[in-house]
Amino acid sequence: MGGRVRFLDLLSFAAGALRGHRLRTALSVAGVAVGISAVVALTALGEGARRYVVDQFAALGSNLLVVLPGKVETTGGAPFGGVTHDLTIDDYRAIARLQRVRRSAPLAVATDTVHFRDRGRAVPVLGTTADFAAVRRLEIGSGEFLPVGDPNQGGNEIVLGVTVAQELFRSENPLGQVVRVGPWRFRVVGVLAPRGQSLTFNMDDVVLIPVGTAMRVFNRSSLFRILVDVRMRGEMEVTKKDVERLMAERHRAEDVTVITQDALLTAFSAILNALTLALVGIASVSLAVAGVGIMNVMLVSVTERRAEIGLLKALGAQDRQVLAAFLTEAVLLATGGGVAGLALGAGAIRAFVGIYPSFPASPPAWAVASALGLSLAVGVGFGVWPARRATRLDPVAALAKR
Amino acid sequence: MIELEEVWRIFRVGEGEVHALKHVSLTIERGEHVALVGPSGSGKSTLLHIVGCLDRPTRGRYLLEGREVGTLSEEERSLIRRHRIGFVFQFFHLLPRLSALANVELPMLFAGTPPEERRERAAQALKAVGLSHRAEHRPDQLSGGERQRVAIARAVVMDPAVLLADEPTGNLDRASAGEVMELIERMNARGLTLVVVTHDPAIAGRAKRVIRMDDGAIQRSGVRGPGFEPRAASPESQGGG
What is the pLDDT of residues A235-248, one digit of tens each? Predict the structure, then answer.
């Protein structure tokens, strides 16, 4: 005399009961399916957004090191205070000569107003060298970039971001025209191609001048940054060490911070992961609603099948077996919805990618796995109470009615 | 086999109490055929439910096969119902979505019997009630008499010690009723203890002993006691078969 119901028997018994109410079953399955597909689709979008940003960073140059004056213990944040030595143009030249560095660019920054005739526009003025275009993957729309030359010398060339050019010159051709930054006069040699936001600056709304000139114009002794383009992706860490060692030698102190692009990327990635989780949280609400739907269906089922429950008890089904039978029904409803929801979500993602092919939306494996796990949990969680009601039923009373 | 000593069953109804059974003492021997009769509300169904371990006595002792079962846990009482007791109900209580065969398999399903053995035993039980040819029919495709015979097959498939029938013919025409009674009497003849609740004197008259209940107490208990002249009252019930 065995005492346990076989799992397959339980499954087919529950499936048989569900088949008895096709419409009701289909509707509650649909409820869960909507919830699960929302979870899957929204995670895919969130994950897609994360990857989109990562790709954007890669386009910026994933081999980028940034040298900042000052030493901070925390990477990824802007350092404040504690600057002991200036970051100089000579430092930049030393770094640029390092073996593992493909090219490097100094950066001095100030905000000033650029004037052309009576029009003026306050923009970030970036002082740098010819290599900046290559380091930052900038493209020239018309004219040319800053000339190659001794960075300490500095000329009077200026390159305009596309927005600056449009605002100051309207329909005129800016090439060869003279603009003023404060009392200083510059000759426009080029206009950047449209680029948009890039790391910290909107590259459409800046102007670029030779770094030597910039230091004099801004009356600065220290650079804002030195950007370093490393030859090999795999040598990022070594190169970072090289730069740190070099700077320690030159300054006789560890007073610069070198951050890799990865540090920034990690920060962005974390933010977008949080965003994805928030989306999942929102989608989970619809799952909870679906769970209540299942609970409702199971309660109706228990009420309708009082006689059946009484009979099962009279035939010797134990309370836990009755519980298992009704719980199995709820779990079948939920996992059925889970599987349907995955299919639905996959379809929605495919449709989305069809409309926006550049957006890399696809549900991560953990989302698929947890969607199924979640639907199982919904079935158990919302099925327990109705199933317990079934076991509490008095068989005498349940059998008395027809 | 079945021993009840001073059994009371008291229901709480709002503020008051209803004494469904009082002072019930009763002994039923193995292989007996007993009819429980009495008007509605006399307590005969309550008594049957207590004997069937579906209900517990409020007071008193109930021994089934020498074992005190009134105080057992619900879990253990389920096992007694599963293995020692077969139920037959007035409204058959077959699951409409299952075939006759699957309905008969049901008690074995919850006992964890392997599918092949289950099928075989259920088929045999159906054969014993003469319904092998109806095995794959669903209840709504069967006549009332056939449904009750499927229910009987289900009740005996676990080879119980006692068969408890609550108005087994209450929903049947006379011919079907006769067939059903003959069937369970045949089983009784092979040693199955039989307790039938009925208010039909013809059915009660077929029992070896009639226990008459009124107002929760046993009024009269005896072998073909006066007041029951069954063969005379319903001569046609003899011939049904």
Answer: 888 898 999 999 98
Is B216 contained in some domain?
A: yes
Chain B residue numbers with beta carbons less than 8 Å from the beta carbon of A316 are 78-83, 107, 110-111, 158
- pLDDT (tens digit, 9 = 90+) per residue, A186-239? 999 999 998 766 656 788 899 999 999 999 888 888 899 999 998 887 888 889
Mutation for testing the B interface, residue in A12, A311, A313 having most B CBs under 10 Å: A311
Q: How many domains does chain B have?
A: 1
Domain that holds residue B21: 2-93+159-239
Boundaries of every domain in chain A = 7-56+266-400, 103-224
How many CB atoms neighbour CB A400 within 10 A?
A: 17
Cα–Cα distance for residue pair A244/A258, rounded to 1 Å? 7
User: Is 80 exceeded by the pLDDT of residue A263?
Assistant: no
For residue A51, is pLDDT > 90? no
- Number of Cα atoms under 13 Å in the Cβ half of residue A26: 4
Q: What is the pLDDT of residue B238?
A: 40
A74 CB-near residues (< 8 Å, 6+ apart): none
Q: What is the DSSP letter of A202?
A: E
Q: Tell me how many residue pairs between chain A and chain B have CB atoms under 8 A apart.
A: 80
- Is the pLDDT score of B225 beyond 50? no
Residue A60 binned pLDDT confidence (cut-offs 50, 70, 90): low
> ipTM strictly over 0.95?
no
| Amino acid letter, residue A155 | G
Name the maximum alpha-carbon separation found in chain A: 104
Residue B152 lies in a domain: no
The CA distance from B239 to A185, in Å, is 127
Res. A80: pLDDT tops 60: no
* Identity of the amino acid at A72: V
| B154, part of any domain | no
d(Cα A179, Cα A212) in Å, to the nearest integer? 18
- CATH number of the structural domain spanning residue B221: 3.40.50.300
DSSP labels, A111-134: EEEEEETTEEEEEEEEEE-TTHHH
Query: Are the Cβ atoms of B107 and A2 closer than 8 angstroms?
Result: no
Residue A25 · residue A298 · CB < 8 Å: no
Q: Min CA distance, A29 vs chain B (Å)?
A: 21
Residue B164: half-sphere exposure toward Cβ, Cα within 13 Å: 21
Residue B145 lies in a domain: no
Better-scored residue on pLDDT, A289 or A316? A316
